[in-house]
Write a structure and sequence with these properties.
223 residues, alpha+beta, Alpha-Beta Plaits, 2 domains, 8-stranded antiparallel β-barrel, globular, NPS3A protein, NIPSNAP, Dimeric_a/b-barrel, NipSnap_domain
Length: 223
Amino acid sequence: LATGPRQNNGIFYEIRTYDIKPAKMKEFLELANKHFHFRTAHSELVGFWYTDLGALNKVLHIWKYDNFAHRTAVRHALANDKDWQGKFISVVLPMIEKQHNEVGYLVPWCQLGKPPKEGGVYEWVTFQMKPGGPALWGEAFRAAINAHINTGYTRLIGAFHTEYGLLNTVHVLRWNESPDHRAAGRHSAHEDARVVAAVRDSVRFLESQQNVLLIPMQCSPLK
């Protein structure tokens, strides 16, 4: 039932989340920063982060594809890339406890953005909405997100509506100068009548919400 307006082109984003063994997290991050250029030679990496608050020992990366045929071609090329397989995949596979991937489209009112400067932290907010898709809750959700953004306390980088994975899920990626900057801005937003009204309208369609603080990797285009 995930129906409603969507972007007109075939571009989609694959969101991959890996749980890393706690004792291997440092080593995994070092290997990724050293060898991830073998992977980015095949397709566009939007960003690569590790979790700091809200979840531990996880990494999250987002890949952009023109269409599903493009992804299929990339996956085939990766399987035959000896450097990627030998120097990274074969080494890190024993470090990974679990893998999860989703496919999402940018919501039609959002363009993928960038932070005003390097540094800072990212917030990954997952909203599980009631069944019905954007046709049911899209406008209320948009109003709630924009009410927060319009306060100026955070910057919207992207909002992704799932196509594969758990449906009626929206992942929102935001940027702040620091965790303290986010905390102060969020406190102010909670006292803003416009934000309060928009959230009260949107929360009627909300099943659950999870927030994770992300730190960008050295190899991440979004820093």
